[in-house]
Amino acid sequence: MEAEGAKEIFQRSLGDRGVRYVKYLGDGDSKAYKTVCEKRNEGKKLSDGKSLGGPGRLTEAEIDKLQTYYGLAIRRNTNSLNEMTSAVWASFLHKASTDDRPQHQLCPKGPDSWCGFQKAAASGEAYHHKHSLPNAVLETIKPVYKDLSDVNLLRKCLHGQTQNQNESFNNLIWERAPKTVFVGHQTIWIAVHDAVITFNNGAARRLLVLNEMGLKPGFNTERALCRIDNERVYHAQRAAQSSTKEARTTRRNAEKQKESAREEADDYDPGMH
């Protein structure tokens, strides 16, 4: 619903309002931006006369890979802004590399490198580039990389502070007042205030609210609220571990690759090039 709403707003802006949107502000998990971009690029041809997406171009699987590389560039270089910036551009140049023009100078070297080219170079084996992106696609996405590698943005990611706090707060509200259920203003008001309390200070801070209302919480109530906070901290710390994040990302990428392979198989036609 959010994605379709954003698409409709962007579609009617020029005709109905005489306004052209040039910037979009949203959370990283939203599909709205992707939907708007797809609609804007629908039928648009790049410098090579082909579209942005499709087999061998910017597929869902390739987008997921680029997002994964970007996340790793941040999480593995939280103590150095320069190294973080280099790692972001390493992923771009990695996808631009071909057998005739390898560009892996920023990729980590050695047998344990995530870069297949550098890994092969360390072992003395030959390497063949199979998953490079066309120059026309790279030209189109390069401005995005310039924005994502901006030092003012990456500086905020130092020390691993990459969680989207706004999205976490929104989730607390939706837990109390689900989007799928219609509620009145009073219910939303209570849900937001309770979400603010627990987001800032934890569930145990509800005890102060009860005291202000003249209600004396019992031992079991106090213990239950403290247990909620302890469990939340435990799960947050576990989810923040790089190994856990990378395992989730690996599973998601595998599913994307399978989906992309199925799409290419469906598009097959004898004689098609």
Automatic annotation (TrEMBL):
InterPro entries: Mutator_transp_dom. Residues 237-273 are annotated as: Disordered. Residues 264-273 have a biased composition (Acidic residues). It comes from the Eukaryota. Residues 245-263 have a biased composition (Basic and acidic residues). Pfam families: Mutator. Residues 1-42 form the Mutator-like transposase domain. This is Mutator-like transposase domain-containing protein.
